[in-house]
Write a structure and sequence with these properties.
Low-confidence stretches: 205-209
Radius of gyration: 17 Å
Shape: globular
Largest sheet: 9 strands, mixed
Structural class: alpha+beta
Mean pLDDT: 92
Order of helices and strands: EEHHHEEEHEHEEHE
Helix content: 25-40%
Length: 213
């Protein structure tokens, strides 16, 4: 039984999801230091070039080869600009289940990229890798991430009380404060995707079907 993800590239009409590369470092550093990314993720802060290079040269390859997950850069097809990162983590190969996480760069928000990238990966997981379950966890205050989960067909399964540490700060204050938050648990099964791809494509004006190699 396969217990590792392949070294994969996934393409949609607007995006290419591929392994992280050295050329991504400047944009990755800028994106990961964005206030919303800092607030709603567990990335180190400040996020330095050294941190970025350690991720793409050591952490990401180790996660994939150990079978724990897969880290992908989300880039625009036409410009090749980095617009986000998508991660699969906490993978259970016996259950054929994994957790999906994503972050979108501030210069690319509002374009539907999180939905498009997540759907492409979900299609690949269900159709090519024969997965049966994808989980998402969104902080209770992260409404944008919750909207993505809903749009791609996820079902809310409940609340994990006090299960996350968000980061907050006042305007003009450079100091971040840890704040305990609930997490909303979402799941996506193969049957949940029925009709979702067409609905999103019609609404956003893109073709969500993905190709992979």
């Amino acid at each position: 039984m396969t217990t590792t993800f392949p070294d994969i590239s996934i393409s949609t009409e607007r995006l290419v999801l591929r392994p992280l590369e050295e050329e991504d470092v400047p944009a990755l550093v800028e994106m990961m230091n964005d206030e919303l990314v800092v607030a709603w993720t567990t990335v180190p802060h400040p996020f330095t070039e050294e941190t970025a290079r350690a991720w793409l040269t050591h952490r990401a390859p180790a996660e994939r080869t150990a079978g724990r997950g897969l880290d992908l850069a989300v880039t625009e097809f036409l410009t090749q600009r980095l617009v986000g990162v998508l991660r699969l983590t906490a993978t259970d190969w016996r259950l054929r289940a994994t957790e999906l996480r994503y972050a979108i760069a501030p210069w690319a928000r509002g374009e539907g990229y999180a939905c498009e990238a997540s759907l492409a990966v979900a299609q690949w997981l269900f159709d090519d890798q024969h997965f049966e379950r994808i989980e998402l966890r969104t902080a209770a205050g992260n409404t944008a991430s919750q909207q993505v989960a809903q749009k791609i067909g996820c079902i809310s399964e409940g609340v994990l009380r006090g299960a996350f540490i968000a980061r907050t700060r006042n305007d003009g204050d450079p100091t971040w404060t840890d704040t305990r938050s609930d997490l909303i648990l979402w799941s996506l099964l193969p049957e949940d995707l029925e009709g979702v791809t067409d609905q999103l494509a019609d609404a956003a004006g893109f073709t969500a079907f993905s190709d992979w190699n």
